[in-house]
Design a protein that fits this description.
The complex is a heterodimer of chains A (249) and B (463). By secondary structure, chain A is α/β, with parallel strands linked by helices. Chain A has seven helices and 14 strands. In chain A, helix 1 crosses helix 6. The radius of gyration of chain A is 17 Å and the shape is globular. Chain B has two domains: 305 residues, UDP-N-acetylmuramoyl-L-alanine:D-glutamate ligase, CATH 3.40.1190; 139 residues, Alpha-Beta Complex (Protein-Tyrosine Phosphatase, Chain A), CATH 3.90.190. Chain B is built from 15 helices and 19 strands. In chain B, the strands form four sheets. Chain B has a nine-stranded mixed sheet with strand order 2-5-1-6-7-8-11-12-13, with helices on both faces. In chain B, strands 14-15-19-16-17-18 form a six-stranded mixed sheet, with helices on both faces. The chains are: A alpha/beta (249), B alpha/beta (463). Chains A and B meet through helix 1, helix 2, strand 8 and helix 7 of A and helix 13 of B.
């Protein structure tokens, strides 16, 4: 047997505020990363960084931040800007994946509104989240993404009050096929700047789209997806189809 | 003079008969019609109850708590108007009152016992004017429908502070910091809780919610955690702490999916209680019902006898036989509730056969992400065969796979009837009759119930 691209490799994941920013079953995303690494003989290391704790810009391959209740998100926003913003910028600059879902996506942007307040974000994505009159954007969602020249579908669930607008330097993660997306009007969903990714899709996202988990693992380890051992994904494909059906696809 | 309300009641009743004939089991249909004809009907009809109303609300355990309370109260000779089928929004409660209303402005029953949906509590309290309000617990649940937990806690706080439940006697779970906080500034709150160190968990469940003090925002220190975020806690920053309960359970013994025992302490004395219901979550439900009875000055002997004679409510650890096989139906609908069911399930010896049914209808929540917050990892190495069904069956199957259940033990059967038949049949070739455990979401449980009634394996006595 020849050497595989993943021999001796370990995926090191850091979950930011895992006890607060976890409202939409965010740990499902982490479970999927863990299992798909384990099944391929890739090591998996999970650490957390909570309120008041330091963040090592060198120590992790994926930095993940999920969604939280407004009150908890406010606590995290202050802590993030005060103590973790620089480390996240350094990590992103050296090629680590920084990935935010829902509230985590909003926090990765330039700013976001909570109630009457306009708060600063991490500033890794050129997006701004505002409040507008109108209902929360809730429901099953499917988007088309173009990753490395390949068009694929991500299915998930969205539930957000904020409307997120892209600035001139931002690229959307995908185009809305079903559902609301960033603002309910533009037909755009999420944002991406290289290895920094933000999206409103939870559900959680990776169990519904395990191919995307592999894409993230490969990007984080800087290898080709094809360089990883294939897995029996019969159930995974069925689950993906189930989530797409729920979104009306 | 024509009694216009009586005419409206008759009309709404006729609609109920029609919808039933058409096969609609919807218990709230006649009530909805009545409310359209007479928006104040709930208040008017409830006003006829000589002993007034008591309300029960919580994320988990409403139906069982009300069933336990009903058993106690009827034993002590109080006749009830009770929404026992669990239709707990305005339409369901209006239907229940409509069914009990009699000629000449009378009503068949003295006391209204209503379980109430969390989001409807303030609006219904406005009409029902409860004399006792039982608040059991708040857990994250169907975020697409209920929104954030803080939002519900804030609405409840407003309702009891100076809203429609201002005058109600509060019965609160001391072990849930979100609930205990609601009674903080009031006199006469009756608290209940568990005091048994042997039950304390090693750590807080992942899906735990109330980790921070509602008063000052500092993290709570938990000295013992019993279930989700329920336990013994204090805030080191502002000094807020768990109130001392007057109704409590000690020496709790859990007997698998069948039963639970505990020592019940009340101001009237203490007694040993043997519940025909499983799990610590049902001990909490029993405490809530006992505390409600204490608030209504029911004698301890009636409380104990009432608790002990209560059988599982519809789908809540209910026991049926399917194709000759003993089957337990354990409703799962949110992470905290599912975790308690799973914890109870793994108390049983041997590997088990499961039928999991995941639906995503409105009453289940369209968002099925909650299954990833529930600790299905408890099942790893403990499943012989897991059949997954429902509108989102493959996603439940995937959840089990990532929880560590071997993929060859998992199968997806979309059609519920076929899934039930195959899950029931497959255990029998093993010799003996190993039990089948069915874990359905809410609408899956209703569908399952219809199937069982059609198969002649369950009665439809609940409605």
């Amino acid at each position: 047997m020849g050497l595989s691209a993943t021999d001796g490799r370990t995926l090191r994941v850091c979950a930011l505020y895992p006890d607060l920013m976890n409202i939409y079953a965010d740990r499902g995303n982490l479970f999927v990363l863990q299992r798909r690494c384990e099944w391929r003989g890739i090591g998996y290391q999970l650490s957390g960084s909570g309120l008041g704790e330091s963040l090592d810009a060198e120590a992790h391959d994926i930095y993940y931040i999920g969604g939280g209740q407004d009150r908890d998100q406010l606590l995290c926003a202050e802590d993030l800007v005060a103590g973790k913003r620089e480390a996240l910028h350094e990590a992103a600059a050296r090629g680590a994946v920084v990935w935010g879902v829902c509230g985590g996506y909003q926090l990765l942007g330039e700013s976001y509104a909570l109630g009457e307040e306009q708060l600063s974000g991490v500033g890794l994505l050129d997006v701004r989240t505002v409040r507008e009159p109108g209902p929360r954007l809730i429901g099953n969602v499917a988007i088309e993404v173009d990753l490395d020249g390949q068009q694929r579908v991500l299915a998930g669930f969205e539930n957000h009050g904020g409307r997120t607008y892209l600035g001139p330097d931002a690229t959307p993660l995908g185009r809305v096929l079903k559902g609301h997306g960033n603002d309910g009007r533009s037909g755009l969903e999420g944002a991406r700047a290289g290895n920094v990714i933000g999206t409103y899709l939870h559900g959680p996202l990776l169990p519904k789209n395990t191919w995307f988990a592999d894409w993230l693992i490969a990007m984080a380890l800087r290898i080709e997806v094809g360089g990883m051992a294939p897995l029996d994904d019969a159930l995974e494909d069925e689950a993906h189809r189930s989530a797409r059906r729920a979104a009306g696809m | 003079m024509v009694d216009t309300l009586a005419v409206k009641l008759a009309l709404a009743r006729a609609v109920g008969v029609l919808s039933r004939r058409r096969g609609g089991g919807a218990t709230s249909a006649p009530g909805k019609v009545l409310l359209r004809l007479e928006p104040g009907a709930i208040g008017t009809l409830a006003g006829r109850l000589s002993r007034g109303c008591v309300l029960v609300s919580a994320t988990n355990g409403k139906t069982t708590t009300a069933a336990l309370a009903s058993s106690i109260l009827e034993r002590s000779g109080i006749s009830l108007v009770h929404n026992q089928a669990g239709a707990n929004m305005a339409g369901g409660i209006a239907s229940t009152l409509l069914a009990a209303s009699a000629r000449r402005g009378r009503i068949n029953g003295e006391l209204g016992l209503f379980e109430v949906d969390e989001l409807w509590l303030d609006r219904l309290a406005l009409q029902l004017r409860p004399k006792v309000l039982v608040l059991g617990n708040l857990f994250r649940d169907q975020l697409d429908r209920y929104g954030e937990l803080d939002t519900i806690a804030d609405r409840w706080a407003a309702a009891v502070r100076d809203g429609p439940a201002e005058r109600a006697r509060l019965v609160c779970n001391a072990d849930d910091p979100l609930i205990a906080d609601l009674g903080r500034d009031r006199a006469g709150v009756l608290y209940y809780g568990v005091e048994d160190d042997s039950l304390a968990l090693a750590g807080m469940a992942h899906a735990a919610d109330a980790k921070h003090c509602r008063r000052c925002g500092a993290p709570y220190t938990f000295d013992a955690i019993y279930l989700g975020h329920l336990g013994h806690y204090h805030c080191a920053a502002c000094g807020q702490c768990r109130p001392s309960p007057t109704v409590l359970a000690r020496s709790v013994v859990l007997e698998g999916v069948r039963a639970a025992r505990f020592q019940l302490n009340t101001p009237q004395g203490s007694a040993e209680v043997k519940l025909e219901l499983p799990g610590l979550y049902n001990v909490y439900n029993a405490l809530a019902a006992a505390a409600l009875a204490v608030a209504l000055e029911i004698p301890l002997a009636d409380i104990v006898a009432g608790l002990q004679s209560t059988k599982a409510a519809f789908g809540r650890a209910e026991s049926v036989t399917v194709a000759g096989r003993p089957t337990r139906i354990l409703l799962i609908k949110n992470p905290a509730g599912a975790n308690e069911v799973l914890r109870t399930l793994v108390l049983e010896p041997d590997q088990r056969d499961l039928l999991g049914v995941l639906n995503d209808n409105t009453a289940d929540g369209h968002d099925v992400s909650w299954i990833w917050d529930a600790d299905f990892e408890l099942l790893a190495g403990r499943v012989r065969l897991a059949t997954c069904s429902g509108t989102r069956a493959p996603e439940l199957a995937l959840r089990l796979k990532y929880a560590g259940v071997e993929p060859e033990r998992i199968r997806v059967v979309d059609d519920l009837g076929q899934a039930l038949a195959r899950a029931a049949a497959d255990g029998l070739d093993e010799g003996g009759k190993p039990p089948l455990y069915v874990l359905p979401t809410y609408t899956a449980m209703l569908a399952l119930r219809e199937l069982l009634v059609a198969r002649g394996e369950a009665s439809s006595s609940w409605d």
